[in-house]
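Reviewer 2 asked us to include a model.

Predict the structure of this chain.
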Amino acid sequence: MVLHTTRRSATRAYTLLEVTLVTALLSIVAAMATPAITTMYAHQRLDAAIDSVRGAWATARAKAVLEGRSYRFAVVVGKGNYRVAPDRDAYWGGEGSNGEDDSEGQGYIREGALPGGVAFAQPGGGGSPAPTSSNTALATGSVSPSEFTRFAVFQSDGTATEDVELVFQFKGTRPMVVHLRALTGAVTVRPQGATN
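Predicted model (C-alpha cells):
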C-alpha cells in the first residue's frame, strides 16, 4: 500500500499596504519625470522646426545660384507656415501665384509647415503670443502667397540681401532666435534675450 502525501505550496501574496506603497512611489517618480519629458519634447519640436527652416534656406540659396535669379523665403507670422519661391510678383501676388506667367520659366516653389505647436514670431518680442495649441500651421497649399511676410531674399551669387533673425515659439518654452548672416550664410541659434 502506497500513501500519497499532498504537498501544499505556499503562495506569496502582497498585502494592500505593499501595493499602495509601490503605487504611491511610482506616482511620485512619474510626477517628478513629467516636467523633464515635457521639456525634452518641446526642445525636440523646436530643433525639428529650426532644421526644416535651415533646409529651406539652403534650398533657396542653391536654387538662386543654380538658376541665376533671386529666391525669397517668407513665413506666416503667428503660424508655422513658410514658403520658398523666386522673388518675382508672379509667385507672390495673391491667389494662383504659382509662376505660370514667369518669363524666365517656372521656378521652384516649396511650401512647408513647422511641427505642431511651433510658430514663427516677430523678432524683438513684439507681435503674437506663444501658441496655446498644437494646431499652429495652416494646411500646406491653402495659404495665399500674399499672406506671407518676406524674411530673406537669396541672390544669384549665394548671398542674402540682409541679415535675418527669425523667432520660433513653442508653448511653455523660451523662444529661440535663428540668425542668418547675409554674406556668409552662417546660421546661429540662441534663446531669445541671450546675446550673440
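DSSP finds two helices and eight strands in the chain. The chain has one domain: 16-191. We have added this to the supplementary material.
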